[in-house]
Amino acid sequence: MRYLNGLRSSRKLEKECFRNIEMQWLLEDIRPNYHSISDFRKNNPAALKTCSNSLSFSERCRFNSRGNHCY
Length: 71
Known about the structure:
Blueprint: H1 10-19, H2 21-26, H3 34-43, H4 45-60, E1 61-64, E2 67-70
Antiparallel strand pairs: 1-2
C-alpha cells in the first residue's frame, strides 16, 4: 500500500498513520512512530519482500468478464 501511494520513508508513513482515516482503521487506531516503522522494516525484510511480491503479482492480474486473466 505504501509504495502504491508513493510513501517510502518511515517519517512519511508515520504522518500518514495520523492523517489517513483508512490507515487508522486498518491499524485499529494504533499509531506507530517512525522509529518503530523503521525497526520493523529492518527486522522483517523477508516478510516485506513476500508482501511486495504478492502486490506485484496482483497488479499484473486483471479481472474481466470471463474471470481472472494474468500475464
